[in-house]
Amino acid sequence: MFVLALMQPASGTPTWVALSYLAASVLFILGLKGLTHPRTAVRGNLLGALGMLVAIVVTLVHQQVLSNAWVLGGMSFGAVVGLVLALKIQMTAMPQLVAAFNGLGGGASAFVAGHALYEPPSDAAMPFFVATFVSTLIGAVTLSGSLVAFAKLQEIMSGQAIRFPGQGILNAMLAIVCLAAGVFLTQGTDHAMAVYWMLFGLALLLGVLVVIPIGGADMPVVISLLNSYSGIAAAATGFVINNQVLIVSGSLVGASGIILTNIMCKAM
């Protein structure tokens, strides 16, 4: 069923793009499989990176933005930053680096969904707005929560649990308001962008408040959970922009993150 879903191109998607996305998805799966053993971890990492390269290049060619100087400049800058981080960061600092990556992924998903909402397709229906809501909410929570986790592990802020009276009630109220904003967002009104930014801001605050009560010793588990959140946000964004490979890759990250979080919780 997974292969059949990818083999059926979305409306307006050429067959060669769908096949390329299928190849990228297979590389992602093989990459995850390789990471299950130390002997194959390097190969698995390379396969996953190759899959991402295929997905990015195919998307840029298909959307005819490969010659865009901003896109090429951003890719070049990101590649240099990634290379420097990979060479300079100590293994003991990997958890906070993963936290930073999770936050960037969640934020990117939320912003892509916001851009799609700014210029919605002419046939936008309820699923489009629901996916936008899910991507924005989870992506923003992941962004701010991951930054707090990074700050705690990097000792930029105290690693102690930060609690205050009524914190649980405040979190619950924020969650309810976010859900209400999501319901309003699904109506597709003229004020959709204003609701989007309100939802984004409230979700950022919620992400901070749900992570600060957790001590630094438990941050690796939190980072694993936020990693799963970043995947869920990416998958939701895939539904927003109708991109199969984003749905598949996000689902893989979301599922593997949940499994890893469960294993870590039992181990601790």
Number of helices, counting only DSSP H or I runs of 4 residues or more: 10
Strand content: under 5%
Instruction: Tell me the span between the first and last alpha carbons.
Output: 36 Å
Q: What ranges have pLDDT less than 50 throughout 5 or more consecutive residues?
A: 1-7
Query: How much helix, percentage-wise, in residues?
Result: over 70%
Shape: globular
Structural class: mainly alpha
Write down the secondary-structure element order.
HHHHHHHHHH
Q: Quote the average pLDDT.
A: 85
Radius of gyration, taken over Cα atoms and rounded to an integer in Å: 19 Å
Number of strands: 0
Largest sheet: none
Verbal overview:
This protein has 268 residues and is mainly alpha-helical. It is 78% helix and 0% strand. It contains ten helices and no strands. The longest helix has 28 residues, at 126-153.
Topology:
Blueprint: H1 2-7, H2 15-34, H3 38-62, H4 69-88, H5 94-118, H6 126-153, H7 167-185, H8 192-211, H9 219-241, H10 244-267
Write out key terms for the chains shown.
mainly alpha, 0% strand, globular, 10 helices, single chain, 268 residues
What is the structure about, briefly put?
The protein has 268 residues and is an all-alpha fold. The chain has helices at residues 2-7, 15-34, 38-62, 69-88, 94-118, 126-153, 167-185, 192-211, 219-241, 244-267. Helix 5 (94-118) runs antiparallel to helix 6 (126-153), helix 6 runs antiparallel to helix 9 (219-241) and helix 9 packs antiparallel against helix 10 (244-267).
